[in-house]
Amino acid sequence: xxxxxxxNLENDATFQQLNQQVNSFNxxxxxxxxxxxxxxxxxxxxxxxxxxxxxLRDYFLRKMVEHLILSEENSNNVQYETVGDILNQSxxxxxxxxxxxxxxNRFIDxxxxxxxxxxxxxxxxxxxxxxxKDQLDDYLNFIDETFKDFTIIPIYLTLDGEEPTNKQYFxxxxxxxxxxxxxxxxLYKDQISDNVYKFIEDYNQVLxxxxxxxxxxxxxxxxxxxxxxxxxEGLIEESPALKQLHFESGYQFEFIMKYWDTxxxxxxxxxxxxxxxxxxxIQQQFDGQVHYKAHPTVPNLLPxxxxxxxxxxxxxxxxxxxxxxxxxxxxQMIVDCV
Length: 338
Known about the structure:
This protein is 47% helix and 12% strand. The longest helix is centred in the C-terminal third of the chain and has 20 residues, at 251-270. The strands form two sheets. A five-stranded mixed β-sheet has the order 1-2-3-4-5, with helices on both faces. The chain has a two-stranded antiparallel sheet with strand order 6-7. It contains 14 helices and seven strands. It folds into three domains: 3-24 and 213-270; 31-210, no CATH class; 273-337, no CATH class.
């Protein structure tokens, strides 16, 4: 890799624009929160506590319980109706506990106890990891023994709705947590302090990036990767060097250190298989002579025989390729042509 390759990449306006977006300031990203499950539990514990200083009272807790009912996966849970009854009562007297130790020396991530309603919410949080052998059974047995006269609602919180081994647990996803945070940001902007709002906004952004990747940024990454493929791949190959001490740094090392997050983003999203496969499909089936867009998640085209619809005006000029029509393709059709 020559130094001029790095100059070309650094002076690419799209690369600089993407770099600003990828590295926009976020307090929680600075703390590397997104990679540590225990820190997610700490934030959730704060949000779920009605008496904390966020000013939301029991809103977040109540919405989380509502989403247990809204999740179709929970409709067959034997305590489905019981959850609805909980919402008919005040949750302001709920107390949140973190890292509750069981008799088997395991630690429950979150425990929410309400003495007034005789209810306990047990939350096992798995952001990246998976459950250990008999872990969920152990937690539930411990809580059943400790709170004999209480209604126990066990919850298994994961990124993608992983099914728990113990069927008594309700399924909850971080995508639903993000939707609650989104509602908070819309409804409580004028009711909570600026510091609290910014903190929740930062956390919401961390979760949003997990489930709703920015399509504009992905398109930028694809463009950058195509224009600087060898440079990006060369820089990625040098990544192991970042873990070593450097006493004689050169321009390439300084470049990697300065733009590492953006380089990783381009390498991850720039190699968009769906986009590339769709373009090959267009070339093979239509020899490129068709109006299309190789979007990274929703690629689309306008077959030549449908060009006549161009004479019909649409309400919004950019609705879809300037046309009021959407065409769906079976994924297998694309695979078969590549």
